[in-house]
Structure formats: structure tokens, C-alpha cells
Amino acid sequence: MASSRSLALALLFGLLSCYASVVPSLASSHGFLQCLSAAIPKPLLHTQSSPSFTSVLVSSIRNPRLFTPSTVRPLCIVTAINASHVQAAVVCGRRHDVRIRVRSGGHDYEGLSFRSERPEVFAVVDLANLRSVRVNGKAATATVESGATVGELYYAISKVSDRLAFPAGLCPTIGLGGHLSGGGFGMLLRKYGVAADHVLDATLVDANGKLMDKQAMGRDVFWALRGGGGESFGIVLSWKVKLVAIPPKLTMFRVPRSVDEGAVDMLTKWQEIAPALPEDLFIRVVVSKQVAEFQSMYLGTCDTLLPLMRGRFPELRLNRAHCREMTWIQSVPYIYLDSTATVEDILNRTTSMDTFNKATSDFVHRAIARDVWVKIFAWLVKPDAGIMIMDPYGGQIGSLPESATPFPHRAGVLYNIQYMNFWSADTDGSAQTRWLKDFYAFMAPYVSKNPREAYVNYRDLDLGRNVVVGNVTSYTAAKVWGDKYYKGNFKRLAMAKGKVDPHDYFRNEQSIPPLH
Length: 516
Ligand SMILES: Cc1cc2nc3c(=O)[nH]c(=O)nc-3n(C[C@H](O)[C@H](O)[C@H](O)COP(=O)(O)OP(=O)(O)OC[C@H]3O[C@@H](n4cnc5c(N)ncnc54)[C@H](O)[C@@H]3O)c2cc1C
Ligand SMILES: *[C@@H]1O[C@H](CO)[C@@H](O)[C@H](O)[C@H]1NC(C)=O
Ligand SMILES: *[C@@H]1O[C@H](CO)[C@@H](O)[C@H](O)[C@H]1NC(C)=O
Ligand SMILES: *[C@@H]1O[C@H](CO)[C@@H](O)[C@H](O)[C@H]1NC(C)=O
Prior knowledge:
With about 525 residues, the chain is α+β, with helices and mostly antiparallel strands. The protein has helices spanning about 1-20, 25-40, 55-60, 85-95, 150-160, 175-180, 190, 215, 220-225, 265-275, 300-310, 330-335, 370-380, 395-400, 430-445, 475-485, 490-500; strands spanning about 45, 75-80, 100-105, 120-125, 135, 140-145, 165, 200-205, 210, 235-240, 245, 250-260, 280-290, 290-300, 325, 355-365, 385-390, 415-425, 470, 470-475. The strands form 5 sheets. Strands 15-12-14-13-17-18-16 form a 7-stranded antiparallel β-sheet. Strands 5-6-10-8-9 form a 5-stranded antiparallel β-sheet. Strands 1-2-4-3 form a 4-stranded mixed β-sheet.
């Protein structure tokens, strides 16, 4: 009894002293805010007592799981409108020992851009208002600030040319800051690879508050920014990207097939067909309960698509009535928004915190056997089941070497799987997250191994969390999740981190640790 009480006391004091060493004193928080006030106009600085604080904080949060009464709020939010505000936040943060979380679109799957699971005082630098997009049609390039959404970039491109596009994600409200930092892929991935493959230059605010372009930051840091994950290397203010060619008319289709209509056989075949099709044809699958919906973008007309499908994937029984010919920009709301949405709706940045969710990912290198698909469909009809989204690889994404950018999931990948589960406020989500964990465990024999690869933009903290040792993130502990996201590129990322942020100022639960 006595010994357990003294153990509890020892633990408590241990915790308190450990807490005290990482949490800046009130005086340093005060000093930080004073430092910010001197450099940043009042309307751009939202402290916890500002009336605007909560509305600014929740403005881009989509997942209520990441914003609960017990979620630790930042000390303040800086809604930067130019580079000097971002630089000031970093300089003040370094001086007063307050760390920064940077947020662009706020779509991080674990909310690391606005919340911390650590006992630390931190500030958020929100780039939502740093969002200009300039498209140069002649050069086929765009310069885009990190706070712009992919929808805003797509729209601006379409206003300049119907022959240009950018190969990034499907959801129009994703921020470019986080998206390009983690790779970024969508319906054009087989033709053009990941979004980060198309970055020509970037402007970075480093841990000293200095502005650097590609030349100034050097080869390794510039490499690291293109897929090495957000937050770790500094704050990217803007990106210059290469646009890609697109025909003026594409053909889209969405064909749902139930198990009764042969979905098991179709999926079994799809695994080998979809990654080997011509690069102009992309067919993804969203599986929910007993229905697999095949969603496709073809860079051509229905007249050429039909014979191609008859030759390569007759099992799907595609016919002319399934074809929807449209422009690339029209395909964005067609695939992601509801059927009444217009092209202008992809500019709508308003998100709502409606469904709680949790996700994780896998990569498949060997086709999964038919009898396993039967079992998978049994998992998907369990009471608290979620969904599977599968994007086929092959084509351009697989043709670059693994070390071309930090995004390593290239040759040999048949497809990516995203598992996602949803729930509403009337449950605590434990049954749904349990289903996700159990299904992920069930899938282990059928997906990539050593490492079991995962996609950093579908961030999952259950893959591993950082440990800080002596005020620096541990490389050994980080390797557990780092190998999954980056495979053989992880060490090079850590070396780049060691160059640009040797003191590990920019860090979070899954940031790259510095190596020297
Ligand atoms: C509804 C939804 C749909 C999605 N669809 C797709 C898809 O089709 N394809 C795909 O590839 N991904 C998709 N994603 C995942 C998405 O690509 C990632 O969540 C991405 O990181 C979001 O970027 P963000 O700027 O919106 O997020 P944020 O939450 O702002 O940032 C994500 C991470 O990057 C850091 N970061 C943000 N801005 C910067 C910056 N300027 N400089 C340095 N670090 C920064 C943050 O600190 C955080 O760690 C989707 C996500 C959601 C929620
Ligand atoms: C950035 O904003 C500050 C006001 O906070 C202003 O003084 C400065 O001129 C602006 N800089 C640029 C480059 O627009
Ligand atoms: C923008 O989207 C939100 C949330 O989906 C919706 O409530 C709102 O009506 C939309 N605004 C416009 C102008 O369409
Ligand atoms: C921890 O590191 C930060 C910089 O990353 C530094 O400002 C701070 O002083 C360090 N704290 C301790 C206790 O060493």
C-alpha cells in the first residue's frame, strides 16, 4: 500500500518535472505574444481570448474526432497574409521557445496542423489567406501559394486553357501546402505520377526565419520538400509547378456492381488489368458493403474507350450509356461532389465538421486471390464496417525510381488501398476504430511487407509516434513509421532535416528526425 503510494507520487513528480522541462513558462508565452504583436497586425493575431479564436481554429477542420473539448488549443493562431508574418512567427517562436504547427488546408488525417498530443504550448501559423494562384499558360507552369486549395488551382488553370491540368488529389478543399508536402495523387496518377513530381521550385521559411528558394536551400532539402511530409523542414510559402497536357474532352464513368452482379470476379480481375492498362485510362474502385463502384477517367472519347474496355476488361460490361464526356475541370465535381454540383462549387472552401472518421492505408504488390475477396466482402458487411478505396498504379507513377522524390511507392505497386470508417456523434467510435484495426490486421498477409508500406498523406498515428530524447526526435523510434511512409528514402530525409533544422524546432508526432 505504502509502496504503491510512493510509486504513484514518484510518477507524479516525474511527470511534473518532465512536463515543466518541455512547457515554456508563462513568461515565455507572454514574451512570445509580445514579440508577435510587434511584428504582426492585430487582426491577424488570434489569441485564446480573441472573439475570433474558435471560428478561425475550426475554419478548416473537417473531422470532429480531432476537435473535442479536451483537444489542447494553440496559444494563438497567426493568419498570415505575407511572408513577413510567417518569418516573424518563427523568429519569435525560436526566441521564446514556443513551437509552431503550420496549417494550409487543414485536411491532415490526424489534425497535426492544428493540434498536438504532447504537453506543449504551441502556436498555429494558418496559411489559408496566403492563397494566390498565377498560371502561365505559355510556359505551362503555375505559381501557387500553400494556402490555396487544389480546387482553386484547378479552376485557375481551366480559366487559362482547356489543354492544361495538374495531377493532384480529388477533394477540392485539400490545401496545396500539405498535399504537395506528402506527394498527392488523383485520377491522373497513371499518366503523370504524383503532384510533387511536378514541383519546379519552392519558397521556404526555415527554422531561422530565413526565406529560401531551391537554389538557396540546396538539392537535398528541395528533394525532401517534394513528398517528405509536412512540417519537418520549415514552412513552404509557395510552389512553382509544371502543368500537364490534357485533351479538351475526357470520358468519365461510374459503374456500381454488387456482389450479386459479379463484383468478386470483377475485382479479382481488376487488380491485374487496371495497373497494366494504357496510361490514358484510370479505373479506381470504391467498395462499400456489397457494392464495388468502378470510377474512371479516360483521356479520350467514348468511341475509343468502348472497344478498349471490350478488349481489356469485358467483365465490367461497360456500354455507351455509362460514358460521360466532359472537360477536365467538369470531371472534378463529377467525381467528388454530388450530382448537382457545378464547376464553381470546387471553389467553395467551407467545410463542415460532420462525420467522425479514421483511416489508414496499404499498398498491394501481388494480386489478392478470389477466395480472399470473398472474405473481404464479409468484413465489409459487418455491423460497424467502413469502406475501401483502391487507386491503381502502374504507368508513369511506377516508372520513376524510388529515390526520385521521397514518395517511394513506385514500380511493382499494383494499387493503393485506403481504409476508412465513419461514425456520428451518438457513438464514441470505438466499434468503428476497432473494425478498422481488425480489418487492417486481417489484410496483413495480402499486402506489402518489410516494410508494410503506407501513404503519408493518409496519415495514421497508430503506425507510430515520435519519441523525443534529449530535446531531439529519436531517429530509431521514428524509423518504425518512417520506413512505412518512405522506405529507403527515410535516412536521406533525416539527413536533409539535419541540414535545414538541426535543432529540431519544427516537429510533431510524425516529423522527420534530424540526422547529422
Ligand atoms: C476529404 C479528404 C480527401 C482527400 N483526398 C485525397 C486525394 O484524393 N489524394 C491525396 O493524395 N490525398 C488526399 N487527401 C489527403 C491530403 O492530401 C492530405 O491530408 C494533405 O496533407 C492535406 O493538406 P492540407 O494542406 O489540406 O493539410 P494540413 O492539415 O494543413 O497539413 C498537413 C500536414 O502538412 C503540414 N503543412 C501544411 N502546410 C504546410 C506548409 N505550407 N509547409 C510545410 N508544412 C505544411 C501540416 O503541419 C501537417 O503536418 C484527402 C484528405 C481529405 C481530408
Ligand atoms: C507584409 O505586411 C506588413 C504588415 O504586417 C507590411 O508592413 C509589409 O509591407 C508587407 N510586406 C509585403 C511584401 O507585402
Ligand atoms: C459551400 O459548402 C458548404 C458546406 O458544404 C455549404 O453549406 C454552402 O452552402 C456552400 N456555399 C455555396 C456558396 O455554395
Ligand atoms: C529545445 O530545442 C529548442 C529548439 O528546437 C530550443 O529553443 C530549446 O531551448 C531547447 N530546450 C531545451 C530545454 O534544451
